[in-house]
Amino acid sequence: MTLYFELVSAQGASSRIALQPGLQRIRAATGDRYRIYDDVTGRTPPDIVVKRLDSHMIIGGLPGGASVELSDFYASCGVSSPCTLVVDTLVADGAGLRPQQSVEVSPSSPPLQALTDGSFVVYPPGYSGTPANAASASEGFPRAAAYAVGGLAIAALAGAGGGGGGDDAGDAPPVATPPPVATPVPPPSPPSGPVDDVAPGRPVVTSALIGDSRTPLIAGTAEAGSAVRLDVDTNRDGKADASYLTAADAGGAWRIDLATQPPASGGLPAGGLPQASATAMTATATDASQNTSEAIRFEVAVRASAPDTLVSVTAVTDDAAPRTGNVANGAATNDRTPTVSGALSEALAPGESVQVLRNGAAVGPAVTVEGGTWRLTDSEVPDGTYVYTARVLNAEGAGPASAGYTIVVDTANNRTATIESVTDNVNPNVGNIRDGGTTNDATPALAGRLSAALAPGEELQILRNDTVVGSQTQVNGTSWTFTDRLPGNGDYDYTVRVVDAAGNVGRESATYDIRAELPRATAQSAGADIVAAADPDASEPVVKEGVPLTLAELLEPAAHAFAGAAAPPTFAADGALRLLGSTDSHDSPLFSAGPLWAVGATSSPLDQLVGS
Question: Measured between alpha carbons, how far apart are the two ends of the chain, in Å?
């Protein structure tokens, strides 16, 4: 079983030490809260005895012969700014062990018994926290004799003296005491025997005073068994930012590792001691008789070093048309001024900056940093393959470089394509349509060749009258085909071009010109199986009262769908359907916002089948 002493400072910092056999001295500080517990029950040992001796609190009755002195507990702390010892033991009753209500012992806790060694008991074993019951034998407080002095029960504890709770000396019957009187408590008697009033020598610091670690090991020598206190003043304002406690061993050696040991109070700045400056420190030693040495004052300097902040490159952005946005790691771009951006593992410290490198060479201008992110727009990057990395710089050097982010800058496109034929598949003139020829096919088939097979990320674009009408061509090696859908009669100029993976547009082919003269239909030739639709795939047929309209219904003004209509439907220049007398609104059930198609045995623009 291990016994622990826990300290929670007024600032909320928590630390603990494992108690060893013998007396351990810890200097009390205003606002501290203390607790002793074992690692089995998590509670205070049941035989604990708490006494006041002069200005110190003595805690005895602990397992393994351990005891604790809270030095200057009654001098450093007061009623308005107390220190507190919390006692929460397990007590036995008929049902077994049960936790008793926690008792807080502070400078305002009344003395319950005076002992012959000049100390005063403020918490006997099993104390319930009720002063009136403290002297009762039923509380389990061991004593050999008791008598009245100043209204307090004075007892001699077997083995008690000078500084710790002792073992029971038997249960001799107490001497009857008169009722308490309101006389003041006499001052404690001085301890018998010679008094040690010689302070120990100042501690000696043997560890390095200059180093690279911001949480160094501070070590040295002091009087064997003395308590060593280390105060750390990082901002050199004369006040301790953090205080540490340790004990010199039998050989006088002591050590405090700032990287692992929690402070008894306060705390170091984030990251530890400041770099490139000296931190003021003070160490004292206090012996078993509470004599404190003169302070040794020294400085610990941390060498400035290269930063350890981690950097990452997370994106490269292309803002050059036609393809803009993020360029994936390893992808191509036609932007010669890409924007590189990334993240930092922590905010930059004063004097630090981010450096971006392209293929190992620094690039500028200055990097823009906002909190944990950064960005830089590179300038005039030639065609080629590049790897971007980034790192943090300070006056001492460079931190670790990020992983690489690769892009290919490609601003040239030498790919070409040609149109070799346009085919008519509607009688009577089935076959190739010559350049400048005429067709009655609303869906002519184009075919041609490429200068080289398309690479990943490249596409072939078909343009009709300078507008891209298709990029989903059928490509087989260096051959391609595409079937168009003409919007109506007219002259159409076709060209083709290749767009590469970087977004560079290749040179357009020579123009291939055709003229469309599509057949017209009559009401008699319009079968009921031909449906009017908003697109040639008949995915959205024109309906009236939920019923798809046939071409005959659209053409016959006397038909049910057009009962009352004065004339057949007419079409605007864009192919939109209108009835005679209708307006350019959707009030008419047969108004369309765009071209309609007659879909059935053939698919043709409706205005070309009907005429206007």
Answer: 104
Locus of tokens 């690039």 = 363
Judge contact between 202 and 292, C-beta under 8 A: no
Strand partners of residue 318: 325
Structure tokens at 224: 């064997």
Give backbone dihedrals phi and psi of 424, rounded to 5 degrees, phi first. -100, 130
The 8-class DSSP code of residue 596 comes to -
Picking from 38-52, 91-105, 387-401, 567-581, which range would have the lowest pLDDT averaged per residue? 567-581
pLDDT in tens, 62-74: 998 999 999 888 8
Q: What is the pLDDT of residues 413-437, one digit of tens each?
A: 888 999 999 999 988 889 999 999 9
Q: Other CB atoms closer than 10 Å to residue 115's CB: what's the count? A: 20
3-class DSSP state of 65: helix
Q: CA of 68: how far to CAs of 65, 357, 365, in Å? A: 10, 61, 64
Q: Is the pTM of this model over 0.85?
A: no
Cα→Cα distances 319→94, 233, 298, 458, 499, Å: 82, 53, 59, 19, 17
Element containing residue 308 per DSSP (H, E): none
Report yes or no: 342 and 311 within 8 Å, Cβ to Cβ.
yes
Beta-strand relationship, 397-398 and 384-394? antiparallel
**Closest residue by Cα to residue 446 from 487, 417, 466:** 417
Sign of CA dihedral 410, 412, 414, 420: positive
For residues 443 and 425, is the Cβ–Cβ distance under 8 A? yes
3-state secondary structure of 49: strand
Averaged pLDDT of the chain: 77
CB atoms within 10 A of CB 61: 24
How many other CB atoms are there within 10 angstroms of residue 571's CB atom? 20
pLDDT in tens, 80-102: 778 899 998 766 565 555 666 78
Exposed, middle or buried, 545 (CB in 10 Å: 0-12/13-18/19+)? exposed
Identify the structural domains of the chain with CATH numbers, from first to last. 3-155 (no CATH), 204-302 (2.60.40.2550), 311-409 (2.60.40.10), 417-516 (2.60.40.10), 531-610 (no CATH)
From residue 66, alpha-carbon distances to 163, 221, 277, 287 in Å are: 11, 23, 42, 17
β-strand partners of 73: none
Strand, helix or coil at 54?
Answer: coil
Nearest-angstrom CA–CA distance, 217 and 21: 26
For 553-579, write each residue's pLDDT tens digit.
Answer: 555 443 434 334 444 454 444 444 444
Size of the chain in residues: 612
Nearest to 374 by CA among 309, 323, 429, 458: 309
Nearest one of 169, 191, 196, 163 to 67, comparing CA atoms: 163
DSSP state of 454: P
Query: In the structure encoding, which two tokens stand for residue 128, read together?
Result: 């319930």
Strand partners, 432: 423
Please, which residues have CB within 8 angstroms of residue 238's CB and are 6 or more apart in sequence? none
Cβ count near 183 (within 10 Å): 11
Question: Do the strands 227-233 and 242-247 form a parallel or antiparallel pair, or are they unpaired?
Answer: antiparallel
Task: Give the closest residue to 123 by CA, choosing from 74, 46, 51, 43.
Answer: 51
CA distance 410 to 245: 66
The full 3-state SS of 80-132, as one line of letters, equals CCCCEEEECEEEEECCEEEECCCEEECCCCCCCEEECCCCEEEECCCCCCCHH
